[in-house]
Amino acid sequence: MTAVATRPRIGFLGLGWIGRNRLEALERSGVAEIGAMADPALPEALDRLDELLQEELDGIVIATPSALHAAQAEAALERGLSVFCQKPLGRSAAEVKRVVEVARRADRLLGVDLSYRHVQAVRAVVEAVRSGQLGEVFASDLVFHNAYGPDKDWFYDRELSGGGCVIDLGLHLVDVALWALGDEVTHVSSRLRGEPVEQFAVAQLELLGGAVVRLACSWNLQAGQDCVFEASFYGTEGSASARNVDGSFYAFRAEVARDGTRTSLAEPPDDWGGRALVEWAQHLAVDGRFDPRAAQHVRVAEVLDAIYGRAP
Fold first, then answer.
1. Residue 93 maps to a domain
2. In total, how many domains does the chain have?
3. What is the CATH number of the domain that holds 111?
4. Which residues does 279 contact at the CB level (< 8 Å), separation at least 6?
5. Which of 2, 65, 217, 287 keeps 20 to 30 A from 203, CA to CA?
6. Is residue 226 scored above 70 in pLDDT?
7. What rounded mean pLDDT belongs to the chain?
8. Given a cut of 70, is residue 26 above it in pLDDT?
9. What is the 3-state secondary structure (H, E, C) of 145-209?
């Protein structure tokens, strides 16, 4: 299907917690119609992707285990459907590149659920960086610690997941850093701890313009709270930071600091959970053609490969 309806019909592949959460957010928005669902665990849903692809749809949302994302996205794109996929889009840069190229050839809209791009506090900090409010930004610290870690066994199988906390949490940090600073990464160094996949990692990215980005992420860290999230950028004229509030996974605050004073940029509450999908669906309702900004997913995946020490 190549034509896009004013209110597009969307199919859902995978209805675990994240899939149901995104479906409910899309239903509340009224932007799109839920056309069909596929999940072998649900009696009211279709069983498989091939059944879903026979439905009259404009796009599909993929919320299945990571090992399936790339192949399922390619199949849907080749069928002429736009795709919104849970992260990671692929387990390696090679997989991500392949999906982006299929989307380009099919001229279909491709989105990835990089949800922290849609947190009001993170957006405010990125805007402060990109607008020049901070002067020349020379350093950044980004942190994401999850006190629990995933509850599905496949996350701990490298072949199925592509890695541990780096591809699960660090992916968001790399994406925010590159989005804010918009510069080429020239060198990556890292230390990873844990088996069979890393559960703690630190990395340093050096950028072409001279800025240095430090990243840290983990599962099951004894941090005294459920979550630690921070995205801070330091410039010659000030700094800006987004942080979670009281260990929350959902509440974030942003501030800018200049000349010894702090000013609020954003405060909770902020219902951001399904915002990435809703914005993708809004875009789809207007134009379902390929968006060249999808190349950002390749850039992020290449940095993740470098953190893992995988050959390009």
1. yes
2. 2
3. 3.40.50.720
4. 118
5. 65
6. yes
7. 96
8. yes
9. EECCCCCCHHHHCHHHHCCCHHHHHHHHHHHHHHHHHCCCEEEEEEEEECCCCCCEEEEEEEECC
Tell me the CA distances in angstroms from 288 to 7, 25, 81, 96, 115, one per residue in order. 12, 20, 9, 20, 20
Distance, CA of 104 to CA of 289 (rounded, Å) = 9
Parent domain of 28: 9-115+274-291
Taking only the tens place, the pLDDT of each residue in 136-165 is: 999 999 999 999 999 999 999 999 999 999
Instruction: Take residue 32 and report the two structure tokens written for it.
Output: 């799109």
Q: Which amino acid is at 127?
A: E
140 and 190 housed in the same domain = yes
Q: Is 292 exposed, middle or buried (0-12, 13-18, 19+ CB in 10 A)?
A: exposed
DSSP track, the chain:
-----SS-EEEEE--SHHHHHHHHHHHHHTSSEEEEEE-TT-TTSBSSHHHHTTS--SEEEE-S-HHHHHHHHHHHHHTT-EEEEPSPS-SSHHHHHHHHHHHHHHT--EEE--GGGG-HHHHHHHHHHHTTTTSSEEEEEEEEEESS--SSGGGG-HHHHSSSHIIIIIHHHHHHHHHHH---EEEEEEEEE-SSS-SEEEEEEEETTS-EEEEEEEES---SSSEEEEEEEEESS-EEEEEESTT-SS-EEEEEEETTEEEEEE-S----TTHHHHHHHHHHHH--S--GGGHHHHHHHHHHHHHHT---
Residues 29 and 49 in one domain: yes
Question: In this predicted model, what pLDDT tens digit does every residue of 160-200 receive, in sequence order?
Answer: 999 999 999 999 999 999 999 998 999 999 999 999 999 99
Residue 84 region by backbone torsions, left for phi larger than 0, else alpha for psi between -120 and 50, else beta: beta
